Heat-inducible transcription repressor
Amino acid sequence: MESELHQLKGDITELMAAAIRFGQSAMSDVPASVVIAGGTNLLNVSDLSDDLTRLRELFETFERKTELLELLNQSRNAQGVNIFIGEESGVVTLGECSIVTAPYCINGQVVGTLGVVGPTRMAYERVIPIVDITSRLVSSALSYQ
């Protein structure tokens, strides 16, 4: 349980850092961008790493960012956590993945969305609260800067 808590703390810290970087860029009138962190963690997921061609396509999607930006923008308009399982995301290369997203705000105005990409058999009971709490913490941190 102790190692699980340490991992959870690391996950939240990594998500918050990426979301705060994105939030700061949103405040500086920089065009919309996507910050991707921790993509190499997908190499440790056997569901994804067993097919190198599929994994390469997934990383190419991350590099292009366009499809991810569209998905995150779509999630901006929703309340709370959104879950896209497999092909629900509308991104072909994410067909074997799930995306858990939540918008974050500055003083009540939605300025971005953070999300986690993982295998369709990810630990949703763990990831959903992490994304939800992180979006709330980032919103709070950005609103009081």
Observations:
- The radius of gyration is 15 Å.
- The mean pLDDT is 79.
- The longest helix spans residues 2-27.
